[in-house]
Amino acid sequence: MSNQSDQVVAALRQVVADTYALMGQTHLCHWNVRGPGFFALHAAFEEQYTELFTAVDEIAERVRALGALAPGGLGNLAQSSSITELEEDADADAMVAHLASANLVVVESLAAARDAAAAADDSESEDLAIARIQVHQKTIWMLKSYLGQ
Questions:
Q1: What span, in angstroms and rounded, lies between the C-alpha atoms of 63 and 129?
Q2: What pLDDT digit, counting tens, does each position of 95-118 carry?
Q3: Is-contact 132 59, C-beta < 8 A?
Q4: What are the DSSP calls for 107-130, one per residue?
Q5: How far apart are CA 110 and CA 136, in angstroms?
Q6: In this model, does residue 87 exceed pLDDT 80?
Q7: What is the C-alpha to C-alpha distance for residues 102 and 25, in angstroms, rounded to an integer?
Q8: For the residues of the chain, what is the DSSP string, one character each?
Q9: Domain ranges of the chain
Q10: How far apart are CA 107 and CA 102, in angstroms?
Q11: Minimal CA–CA distance to 95: which of 143, 43, 145?
């Protein structure tokens, strides 16, 4: 592999770690949300973590298609991720704000992967990153709208 391809793989591995961490945080919020917005948030968080599960698989498989190994193991992924963990007893608004911030971290990781893929002339990885950025930007908009922002 070329240096540029190595950079694409490294960036995609970071996306896997950050996406997996976001999925875990979203699942935590799904389990522990409470209050007047419970039903709406419980359902929204389930939809989000389910979508993330499919997405992280697709990203990891792209890493494999590039001839590298996908990262794994909860400890390894947690150590590699830039996403902080939320307290279990956070209130609903704190959960929503945290997930909006965590989605932004994933957007930043995806932007780095998109740029590395563009430099390596890897249109497939670039396209994957662009599509994922759009999903996360929409999620951020929805979460911030819930908060009235």
A1: 12
A2: 999 999 999 999 999 999 999 999
A3: yes
A4: HHHHHHHHHHHHHTT-HHHHHHHH
A5: 10
A6: yes
A7: 9
A8: --HHHHHHHHHHHHHHHHHHHHHHHHHHHHHH--STTHHHHHHHHHHHHHHHHHHHHHHHHHHHHTTSPPP--HHHHHHH--PPPPPTT--HHHHHHHHHHHHHHHHHHHHHHHHHHHHTT-HHHHHHHHHHHHHHHHHHHHHHHHTT-
A9: 3-146
A10: 9
A11: 143
Which amino acid is located at 22 in the chain? L
The answer, as to whether pTM is greater than 0.90, is yes
Dist. CA 128–CA 124, nearest whole Å: 6
CA dihedral 27, 32, 36, 39 (to 10 degrees): 40
Residue found under tokens 């991720």? 81
In whole angstroms, give the CA distance from residue 65 to residue 85.
31
85: left (phi over 0), alpha (psi -120 to 50) or beta: beta
Instruction: Give the angle 73-95-146 at the CA atoms, nearest 5°.
Output: 130
Whose tokens are 């935590």? That residue is 28
CATH code given to domain 3-146? 1.20.1260.10
Q: What is the mean pLDDT of the chain?
A: 96
Identify residue 121 by its one-letter amino acid code: D
